[in-house]
Design goal:
By secondary structure, the chain is of the alpha/beta class. Helices cover 32% and strands 20% of the residues. The structure holds zinc ion (3 copies).
Length: 433
């Protein structure tokens, strides 16, 4: 069976998260998106933990489902923010923890509390333990648990972040670095960028949404293949370790990395944005305020990469997938969320009632968002929802779109139709009257 996994997201108990992020709504949206394995998020929060424990039942070892509502599968998950000083430098690192079952989750919670962690105030708690101490605590309490460093390139809170991180996994996780077998790309990077990092050669590259509201669930995801008979948390773990018998990563679903908030470098206040090549030529001081620019993901990859690798693009059933040149890594596909495609096709905004109604209707008729974006024949899309929707999805599948890279906390923008194409369309419309 195919398992579309989104294991990094947040509940309403995390800061700046929608109140709608409660289990039933998360489950409902996961199914709409085509995600069938979801993280519970925030398992370290006492109130949320009580809720997930009450509402979920185990259906495979370490795999859960809602007792009462239609449900994807769940694994227990939570993100922890470590803020600490190591060798005189401050670090802020986010790690995703996946305990193998509820008793292991409870043991990890107890161990964290024993070390003085305040788990009550935020679903994504901030702790003073280093990544090494956290890994030691987790693996000594629950050896079967999984730790995945999150969005590893973002400047402020990540493993390789320009303002928060390290230059290697070894420095960050010390003796536990061998146990870190998978990393999360985050929105601002894609697998190609990560293939260029030597120490990631033998590590799995995964993508999850980090959703703070239901509609963002699945904006990035990892697609596995596995046997239903042996489906379990340990099959997931073996998959993330690239071991025989584990779930096999078929491909990842990515956001356009340029759309991420920290792709390029710059200063949002001063409206200065620079590509890695521009930083290389002009330096990293802001021409407006004179202070150092926030160095983005593209530049950090450029700094740490030992080699340059370009992906090979191949079309499969009309969808462009990107492959490692020697075929050694799972490929990936880059998508634009369906509401954004509808919004542009309808010349409206993703949050407008018109766009939301059409989105809901498409899901009702065609099952889920991933099947619409990847599988539904274009003729069917066009005949049901008109040529603009069909054309928009075709352009996304073929990567024929326009992007302005994000920088210093400002999201990048994606345009499916160029201004020119829009003008032509307006003229055609006018000539109808
Ligand atoms: Zn994070
Ligand atoms: Zn997060
Ligand atoms: Zn500036």
């Amino acid at each position: 069976m195919k398992i579309v996994a989104d294991l990094h997201l947040h509940s309403r108990y995390s800061r700046a998260v929608s109140q709608q992020m409660e289990l039933e709504t998360m489950a409902q949206w996961a199914l709409k998106k085509g995600v069938n394995l979801l993280g519970t998020a925030d398992f370290t929060h006492p109130l949320w933990f009580r809720e997930i424990k009450t509402k979920l039942k185990e259906v495979f070892p370490g795999i859960y489902q809602l007792k009462t509502a239609p449900s994807p599968y769940f694994v227990i998950s939570g993100e922890i923010s470590s803020i600490y000083t190591q060798n005189g430098q401050q670090h802020r690192i986010h790690n995703l923890i996946l305990p193998p079952n509820f008793s292991a989750a409870e043991a990890i919670i107890k161990a964290l509390e024993k070390r003085g962690a305040n788990l009550h105030s935020d679903g994504r708690p901030i702790i003073g333990l280093s990544s090494i101490q956290l890994a030691e605590l987790v693996f000594s309490t629950a050896p079967e648990a999984i730790i995945i460093p999150c969005h590893i390139w973002t400047p402020w809170f990540s493993l390789y972040g320009s303002r928060s991180g390290f230059d290697s996994l070894k420095e960050c996780f010390g003796p536990f670095s061998e146990k870190i077998t998978a990393i999360e790309t985050g929105l601002s990077s894609d697998p190609t960028m990560n293939w260029q990092i030597e120490e990631l050669t033998n590590r799995q590259i995964v993508s999850f949404s980090d959703a703070h509201s239901p509609i963002k669930i699945g904006r990035e995801a990892t697609v596995f293949e596995g046997e239903k008979e042996t489906f379990s948390f340990s099959a997931l773990k073996a998959g993330l370790e690239n071991k025989e018998g584990g779930l096999k990563i078929l491909f990842t679903i990515e956001f356009y990395p340029e759309e991420g908030k920290y792709h390029y470098s710059g200063h949002s206040r001063c409206q200065v944005r620079r590509s890695p090549e521009e930083i290389q030529k002009q330096g990293n001081l802001c021409p407006v305020c004179g202070k150092p620019l926030t160095l983005g993901v593209a530049y950090r990859v450029y700094q740490l990469a030992k080699k340059t690798i370009s992906s090979v693009k191949k079309e499969k059933n009309g969808v462009v997938f990107q492959y490692h040149p020697d075929g050694s890594r799972p490929p990936f596909v880059t998508l634009v969320p369906l509401v954004e495609i509808i919004a542009e096709a309808e010349q409206s905004t993703p949050t407008s009632q018109k766009v939301i109604s059409l989105y809901e209707e498409m899901i009702t008729q065609l099952r889920d968002e991933f099947s619409i974006l990847l599988d539904t024949p274009l003729e069917k899309l066009t005949s049901l929802f008109g040529p603009r929707i069909g054309e928009g999805i075709e352009k996304v599948r073929k990567r024929e779109i326009f992007i302005e890279p994000g920088y210093d906390g400002v999201f990048g923008t994606v345009k499916i139709w160029s201004e020119q194409e829009k003008e032509v369309k307006k003229e055609n419309q006018m000539s109808l009257f």
